[in-house]
Amino acid sequence: MSNYPRSPALKSKKPPRIFTRSALREFSATGVVVFVVVLSITLVTQVIRLLDQAASGTIPVEGVAALLGFRALSYLAPLLGGTGFVAILLSLSRAYRDSEMVIWFSSGLSLTAWVRPVLMFSLPIAFVVALLSLFLSPWAIAKSEELRQILNTRDDASIVSPGTFQESRRADRVFFVESVSRDKQQVENIFVQSMEKDTVAVMVARTGRVETAQNGDRFLVMTNGARFDGPPGSAEYKIMHFDRYAVRIQQAEARPASPSTKSRPTAELLANRTPENLAELGRRLGQPISAVLLALLAIPLAQVNPRAGRSLNLVMAILIYMIYTNTLNVAQVWVAFQRIDPAIGLWGVHGAMLVFIAAFFYRRLSVFSLGRFRA
């Protein structure tokens, strides 16, 4: 027997502070990188979609930034939950590949000792995810829907985009302007085609201006232009030159739209417990729960088998993540359609995931295996 004292790490099952601090630093650094990358990809995708809608005249260019901000806030909760999972998985996988886990295990610590630093990293993330999913995301979605409703009530003059052909809301006119002034009141080189019974009227003018009458009606007053009237496909048409010609701008009808389930406040969901509201409430409560469960799953999932390749655990992680999230979505739909009990829809999938994580830990620790279970 050796007379040398044993290392304190061999006597305690808790990881030393130096291990915990090092793990938290690496989790945080990797998480910041992953979050920035994922958020950038999401924002670029949304910017492309919004700019496409702005180019087609569906939304004004001024509304792109506001809609992008609201969408970013609504996506933060799932992005943060996935970021914590990926950060822990990448950090522990790197520790396996660089043989740092050998030092961890040789110091007398088991795989379960990673639970403490992982929870220290994931619980604050889950708290932020809970705040986002329960309060901030519904507010952002509600504001986005409100802004969409305001944009949908704009008149035809507001949807005109310079250099593109725009169709009126009633689909009976087509507008084209070459340029618009900064105050959006003066336009140049105007083309307007309208359907009037069985004839087509085409108007062209050099300049135009939006004017408001005393009764509140708005008109596009064109100057120095011409109008061509005639049946489609016929050579018989009339030409009329004008110095001033006014076209009434059609006003869009304001139709009050009921807010979607995702935009309703959490207090309203609790007060009015319909199946749809319970399904949405389960989705919001499930996001912070899934953030913690996925963080715990990353501990046994990060083990790298050199014979199987380094990317096998990443492929397996993506597969498990997709199955888990899709099962949650299916459970939410079933709760909304009253096919399963809301308690089962909320806790059933998470409970099954917790059992799977426990079995995965036992498998990695060689305490539980499929062969022993069959025996």
TrEMBL record:
<dbReference type="InterPro" id="IPR030922">
    <property type="entry name" value="LptF"/>
</dbReference>
<feature type="transmembrane region" description="Helical">
    <location>
        <begin position="27"/>
        <end position="48"/>
    </location>
</feature>
<keyword id="KW-0997">Cell inner membrane</keyword>
<keyword id="KW-1133">Transmembrane helix</keyword>
<dbReference type="InterPro" id="IPR005495">
    <property type="entry name" value="LptG/LptF_permease"/>
</dbReference>
<dbReference type="GO" id="GO:0043190">
    <property type="term" value="C:ATP-binding cassette (ABC) transporter complex"/>
</dbReference>
<dbReference type="Pfam" id="PF03739">
    <property type="entry name" value="LptF_LptG"/>
</dbReference>
<protein>
    <recommendedName>
        <fullName>Lipopolysaccharide export system permease protein LptF</fullName>
    </recommendedName>
</protein>
<keyword id="KW-0812">Transmembrane</keyword>
<keyword id="KW-1003">Cell membrane</keyword>
<dbReference type="GO" id="GO:0055085">
    <property type="term" value="P:transmembrane transport"/>
</dbReference>
<feature type="transmembrane region" description="Helical">
    <location>
        <begin position="68"/>
        <end position="92"/>
    </location>
</feature>
<keyword id="KW-0472">Membrane</keyword>
<dbReference type="GO" id="GO:0015920">
    <property type="term" value="P:lipopolysaccharide transport"/>
</dbReference>
<keyword id="KW-0813">Transport</keyword>
<feature type="transmembrane region" description="Helical">
    <location>
        <begin position="314"/>
        <end position="337"/>
    </location>
</feature>
<feature type="transmembrane region" description="Helical">
    <location>
        <begin position="343"/>
        <end position="362"/>
    </location>
</feature>
<feature type="transmembrane region" description="Helical">
    <location>
        <begin position="113"/>
        <end position="136"/>
    </location>
</feature>
